[in-house]
Amino acid sequence: MPHNEPQGPSQPWTRKSFLRGMAAVGAAPLLPGVIAATAPAAEAAPSDRPAFPLVRDGSAVDVFVDPSDDPAVVRAAGDLPADVERVGGVRPRLLHTLPERAAHLVLVGTIGASPVIDRLVAERRLDVSGVKGRWEASVTQVVERPVPGVDRALVIAGSDRRGTVYGVYDTSERIGVSPWYWWADVPVVRRETVSVPSGAVKRREPSVRYRGIFINDEQNLTTWSRRKQEPDKNIGPETYKRVFELLLRLRANYLWPAMHPYSDFFNKHRENPELADRYGIVVGSSHPEALLRNGVHEWDPWAKEHPGPDGALPVYDYTVNPGVISDYWRARARQNASYESSWTLGMRGLHDSALETKHATTIPEKVVVMNNIIADQRRILAEEVTAGAEPQIFIPYKEVLDLYNAGVQVPDDVTLIWPDDNHGNMRQLPDDAERVRAGGNGIYYHLSYWGRPRSYLWLDTTQLSKVWQELRRVYEHGADRMWIFNVGDVKSIETGLSFSLDMAWDVDRWNADGEDDVEDFVAEWAGRQFGRRHGPEIAAIRTEYYRLAAERRPEFIDRGMFSVVHHGDEAGRRMAAYGRLLERVRGLGAELPEAYRDAFYELVEYPVYGAYLMNVKYYWADRNALAVRQGRGAGANRFADLAEAAHAEEAAITKRYNTEVAGGKWDGIVNPYPSQIPKAPGRPTVTRVPRQETSGLGVAAEGNETGAGRPLSFSSYTRDRRFLDVFNTGFLSVDWAAEAGHPWVLLSATGGSVSEQTRVWVEIDWSRAPLGAQESTVVVTGAGQRVEVPLKVVNDGDRARRRARGFVEANGYVSIDAVHFERRVTRGGSRWRTVRGLGRRSAAVEAVPSTAAPVTGDFAARAPELRYRVRFASAGVFPVTVFRLPSLDERGHRRIAVGLDDQPVSVLSGQSVATGNRGDAWARNVEEGIEKLTTTVTVDEPGEHVLRLFMVDPAIAVDQIVVDTGGLPATYLAPPESYHPVFNPNPDSTAGLDAPSR
């Protein structure tokens, strides 16, 4: 899609350049309210009848709900008039008695709880087939003369209380009120006439029964809540009202509330559980909070009230104080027995720590203790709530998973909640026996996380295609009873949360290899927020934003991660991609009306801008460190200035979010550096060189930190562009000149005066270069210095380039994007599918179905296969590395097989277990977003060969393959993709690199 060109190398990185072009001017987008958007899993019947008016000629249609209906329905029905007023400027009346006469009326009610709805069903005037008796289903239908005196009614009827509530909010969204109208300041477009199509809409029951969020590591939310919602509380009823409404508008029904020391525990304010029940939200508790007890806040007071016979305070250890702990749980069960709650069984330590068992030291002993704990908790629930209190859940999180696998007996009607590794990779999924349990299975999945090896709490950075891949796998394994998403502070996770809950409602709505892929979700979702015509561009922006985060989350950035000397400045290439993305954001922002600026900043601009700044300040810091090692003078200080300017700009945009956006509404909600939880990377350390009135010439060629010991390499296939840096070792300007050894060696600059540094690009005029292997030089002179930069040039000619088939070895490697296969072979009912938007490149390939049996032998006959044609210029035994996404299976393996031609294949085994450590293979994999699996292939003779990739275990995803044919430097990213006449006919290893080249 069109976007503005990046800045040239001569333009400095300044605040002014960042802010240029951000004024919000342009034509209004297509109105979200005009879009006939219906909820996923909804069926809209066509109709030739006129649309049903909600506002016309300055009058609004009244809304009726029976006062005897569920309080959640009565409350939500009251939100519909408010939403209609937001769109039409006129507020309907909310009626609790039917009018004697009305031309139009909105009827809201629940089947079995609303007499008027039940009468329409009994008279077969309201079609509830596929709705009645189902979980949270609903129908919206226009009925003529529904009751005496009413000519026409829009009927919103649910199978149960939440089904009706979802029907109400779906109607609100259809007329243009986004679920994020409050939480993300999405404007509501005003219209004089407000109507909905008259065709009936049925919303089938959801794919997942319980769908919700965990507010966790919520210091920023607590800070904001105290400043802007309730000055006397640390997240209280006023904030939870907003949370409950958001969840219902997103068709969620479940919450684990905030739990940390800096927040008020949920039951501290008794209005909280009462409000949740009135809204229709099921409240549960996280893995360390058994039976709705918050150990962080509640155990110490309880212990002080229940000292031992010697006056000592009891410890939270069931092997030491079972009676005191049991009574502690029982008190909450009794207190919350009347609410629709979810009951967490089992036990961990206080404040998300490991289980403490002083008198049980071995795994078998701890299993017995856990079995006793569950039995005790079940007795409490039977006695204080009901014998069938549900849902009851057991969460085998961290060390508890080891106990579960060692023999903990979880009752059949209890839901098993399987956790990911906190980084979006499911650790373990139900087996055949677990899939048929009466209680079913669910998941606890992180979109935000505090813990090892690194935390990501600031921005929404998990690729949606990654979420899609793992949730599809989850669903295929029968985990469909409950999905809980850790969303941190709620803000900044808007897109990821919307997608995750969308999948939970209708898991089949979005695919990654079909017509409706994940990027289509973002386009549709963004279109509802900003207007349909802007949806595709926002989707493309978010997809690239997620891709760059998949290379390395901005919260994981550190010194020296990306090379600044290899592959055309690997780090610089990445910064150039970020720079181009930011230009697209600016261009789009300039088209939006002023009313959309706050929402755009929150949902699009700040995440891209912030991620860019977090990365670019470390890029300049790395350039500064390299400059110091190279002995640069003024240039070293310039890089230091740029690093610190980027950090200052990052602080400035965060301040704008908190104090200017939406009139300061979000003060405190966004902070990369909170005081009490892990922080994003802060200000990188830089070094400044004392000024000296000297000058001197220095040269560093690409591939070298200093000097030019490693030649610049060029191939007629990749048509490379290489750089050499000419720099000043002092502070006074120095004159320099560069001369190429042959006329077919082209230089972007041949001399001048340099006060800091300049980057000279070297290219080959292939129409003039002689065929075969050539050597040449670039000589740089100045200040009495002479530096010779060697060049190695291989020119096979245009004819060979045109006739090449497959990927061509050049510059010591073959690099392949895994989706660029020549042939895909399906075998044994399994296949490789392309998942767009997954991994570090544009897409990845995944072995499916995820439930397929592993293939452990006879691969050429039994395993699905991918084939890649490769032309090698040399022979030998070469390392081949497969870049796979780090999925897990703690009951099995993570294997893939690689072979060349008809040679025996090598089976590569990846990390299958989440250790939870720092510094080991699992930690490295989740930090980098990939796992590198390496073997060797033997190339007997130069020429064309076929590289073959076989599935061993299902649900393996691969995004790149690299063959090192000699001298490939070690870098964080794979080298740029090799020449391929179809997939990569015009490779440019330094595309867009000018943006950060100062």
Structure description:
- There is one protein chain.
- With 998 residues, the chain is α/β, with parallel strands linked by helices.
- Helices cover 29% and strands 22% of the residues.
- It has 22 helices and 39 strands.
- An eight-stranded parallel beta sheet has the order 13-12-11-18-17-16-15-14.
- Strand 17, helix 13 and strand 18 form a beta-alpha-beta unit.
- The longest helix is centred in the middle third of the chain and has 34 residues.
- It is globular, with a radius of gyration of 31 Å.
- It holds the Pfam family GH115_C.
- This is Gylcosyl hydrolase 115 C-terminal domain-containing protein.
Order the strands across the largest sheet as they lie in space.
13-12-11-18-17-16-15-14
Stretches where pLDDT falls below 50 for ≥5 residues?
A: 1-40, 991-998
Structural class: alpha/beta
Q: Round the Cα radius of gyration to an integer and report it.
A: 31 Å
For the residues shown, what is the average pLDDT?
Answer: 93
- Topology-level CATH name of the largest domain: TIM Barrel
**Number of folding domains?**
5
CATH architecture label name of the largest domain: Alpha-Beta Barrel
Helical content band? 25-40%
Summarize it.
The chain has 22 helices and 39 strands. With 998 residues, the chain is of the alpha/beta class.
Q: What are the SSEs and their pairings?
A:
Layout: H1 15-19, E1 42-44, E2 52-56, E3 59-60, E4 63-65, H2 71-88, E5 94-95, E6 102-110, H3 115-122, E7 138-144, E8 150-158, H4 161-174, E9 194-196, E10 201-203, E11 210-215, H5 219-228, H6 237-249, E12 254-256, H7 271-279, E13 282-283, H8 295-305, H9 322-335, E14 343-345, H10 363-384, E15 392-394, H11 399-405, E16 415-419, H12 432-435, E17 441-446, H13 464-476, E18 482-488, H14 494-505, H15 518-530, H16 535-551, H17 570-591, H18 597-630, H19 634-659, E19 697-701, E20 712-715, E21 722-728, E22 734-740, E23 745-747, E24 751-754, E25 757-764, E26 772-782, E27 785-795, H20 797-803, E28 807-808, E29 813-817, E30 823-825, E31 831-836, E32 843-848, H21 859-862, E33 865-872, E34 876-884, E35 895-900, E36 906-909, H22 921-928, E37 931-939, E38 943-951, E39 957-964
Parallel strand pairs: 4-5, 4-6, 6-8, 11-12, 11-18, 12-13, 14-15, 15-16, 16-17, 17-18, 20-27, 28-33
Antiparallel strand pairs: 1-10, 2-3, 2-9, 7-8, 7-10, 19-21, 21-25, 22-24, 22-26, 23-25, 26-27, 29-39, 30-33, 31-32, 32-39, 33-38, 34-37, 34-39, 35-36, 35-38
Helix pairs in contact: 2-4, 6-7, 9-10, 13-14, 15-16, 16-17, 16-18, 17-18, 18-19
